[in-house]
Structure of CMP-sialic acid transporter:
Amino acid sequence: MAAIGAMPEIGGFRQKSRRSFVTLILTVLTSSQSILIVWSKRAGKYEYSVTTANFLVEALKCALSLVALLRIWRKDGVTDDNRLSTTWDEVKVYPIPAALYLVKNLLQAGLYCFLYYIFAYVDAPGYQILKNLNIISTGILYQIILKRKLTEIQWAAFILLCAGCTTAQLNPSSDHVLQAPLQGWVMAIVMALLSGFAGVYTEAIIKKRPSRNINVQNFWLYVFGMIFNAFAIMTQDFDAVMNDGFFHGYSLITVLMILNHALSGIAVSMVMKYADNIVKVYSTSVAMLLTAVVSVFLFGFHLSLAFFLGSTVVSVAIYLHSTSKARR
């Protein structure tokens, strides 16, 4: 009887261990992501086509999901929860997050004039700070879309997390902090809402059918990601790809960056499946701090007092969040 009573506890331990593992992997992959992006540039520019790189990221994620499914089929057979065949009602929701992530990636890569328009009102450090608004937007959309209420302590931790990340990114040599006009704030809020909505909506899709195998859900999400990114190649870089080739400007660093993005995308979906977007936000914030520390050794980056103060605030936020759980 004691052994039977311990079974749920063992299952909960495994679930917690899996959640901790995928969160750790996501943090490591995200922290190395920015470094690989910097290394992939030549003289501050991308020699390769960003749209083709995004397409390959989606294709690689799709292939990895299919490989994982093949292993599951060999071991457990094909069931209703792991079969690829599905209905249109289940698949029709995947184009929405795929399109949102495409727009987000293109805006971050600077392929649309929208981002250039932002920099007309906000300088680069200010933009990086305003981008932390997606922490707050994620919390708000988390409650609206997923109907899960954050406790007062968790909201306090969220605000501290946003403040800590902002403090860590402050430039001590600049006397002007966040002196952006209304247009800059509006654009930053739009970007934050876009990023937050894409993440929360994806989590809602993944958790709509908890028993559904995550690799099947990933496969269909990435299929639509490939379709939208192929459209981006056709509209943005068609002439360049036709004249110079699909892999023009690619290097070993570019390949590693694509691999990193693919594994990061799968890790994000795992975190959403077994944890939530709140955990993802904390993981991304910690990854930002790790990136800064690694940059000290790789690029001679100097850590300021603001960084250490911000890191302390982030640590307090993580501790507060860990002591309080979300309630419905």
